Structure formats: structure tokens, C-alpha cells
Amino acid sequence: MKIGFFRFLIAVLLIGFGVVLVLENIGVMDFNGRDAWGYIYPSLFILFGIKWMIDRMKHRGGSYAWGSFFFIFGSLLLLDRFDIITFTFGDVFKLWPLLIIYFGFQFIGNSFKPKVIIQKKGNHEEVIDAEYSNSSFFTVGNHEFNKPNWKVEPTTIKTLAGDFYYDFSKAYIPEKEIPITVNALAGDVHILIPENIEFQIKASVKAGDIDIVGQTVDGINRSLSYVTPNYDTATRKLNFTLKLKAGSIRVDLV
After folding, report:
1. In what helix (H) or strand (E) does residue 253 lie, and over which residues does it extend?
2. pLDDT digits (tens, 9 = 90+) for 214-240
3. What is residue 31's predicted lDDT score, i.e. its pLDDT?
4. Helix 36-57 / helix 64-81 crossing angle, nearest 10 deg
5. C-alpha closest to that of 161 among 144, 141, 180
């Protein structure tokens, strides 16, 4: 992955350098080779920022915060080089309000907490059920369930926007029917389910696409239902209700 990115980076730099030289030769712009670095390093910031954000979306590390910061910082520097705005490297401290924005999103992410039902047995307390719920429809954030041996519990998420990633191949799934509901104004839902797990899904989007193990629909006001053959008789099974106003729903078997 890193090799591919750096090859892409070199290619972009060569193409950009060639375009600038062509523009200089035909009189569109004046270019001094000594000023090349002033255009190169902001472009590097932008490319690295995009890569980190893409890596984060694909769950391959990366960072939304650092990725967006370098993308914004590089873009402002590049706009300065083209005399659109005035922004120098020393003006980086003017971007401090981004910290407030990042902390805000961090608090939103932390608002997703489990509701735990505890039963007392003598002098001991035992967790008998836990329902993960985010009932505020005015929150924005990503929800990832992909840690090794994470426990699947009844889940209800209602949120304004976000990306939802479930990897049930890494999960501990109890012997019962487990309902999972996602209701969002906008977002992407990606679910990985082992082939030996029974499940049913009711999915709908006002605008977008749905792909459930190869069955697809897309467009406006689309819905798709799917149930595995042995769902009714299975003791361990997942029951999904997925509703998006705009976005994409995808379910893959692994």
C-alpha cells in the first residue's frame, strides 16, 4: 500500500511539474525553478492529508483530524502561491479554531455509550444484558465494531450522519436473536458477516444504493430485504433494520 502511494505521489509531482513548464513556455505563467519548492510542499501536505483520511475511511489507520488539518493547511498555502488569498507558513497558528472543532467531534464520538442492565445475585452484580443506544438525531460521528472478540449486543443508533462499520468475523455472537438498528440522515453502512451466521436484513434508502451479498438496488426510495435460509430455526442470529435518507448500504459474506 505504501509503495503504491509513493509511486502515485511521484507521478503527481512529475505531471504537475510538466504542466507548469508547459504553461510557462506558452506564456500563461512565469515560473522560476527556485520557486518550485513553494508549490511542491503544499501539494505534498494536500496529498498526505487525503491519504490519511482515505486510510481512516478504509479502517487502515490514518486520521481524520491530521488528514483534514494537512489538507486544509496545504490548500491555503497553495491558494497563496496562486495569489488568491494571503496565507504563509507562519500563519499556521491561525488554524487553532480547528482544535475546537476536533474536540467537538471527539465528544460526539464519546456520546455513544452502552446502556447496561445489571442483576444482583447476593453480594454480587452480574451484567445480564447491554443495549448500545444513541438516540440523539443531532449527532455526527463514525461507529466501528471491529475489535478482536467484541461482543455483539442489541444496538440502536439514531444519528444525523456517520459511517458504520461492523465486522462480525471478529465478534463474539451470543446464542440468541440480536436486533441491530441504524437510522441516519446520511452515511455509509458496511457489514461483514461470516457465512455460518444466520441473519435477516430490512434495508432502505431515500437516495442511494443497497448491496446485500450481491443483490443490489439503487436510485430513489429503494429498499431491499434479505433472510438466510435457516434463520427461523437458528438460535444464534442477527436481525438488522437499516434506514438511510442518503447513502450506501453494503453487506458482504466473509
Report:
1. strand 237-253
2. 999 988 889 999 999 999 999 999 999
3. 59
4. 150
5. 141
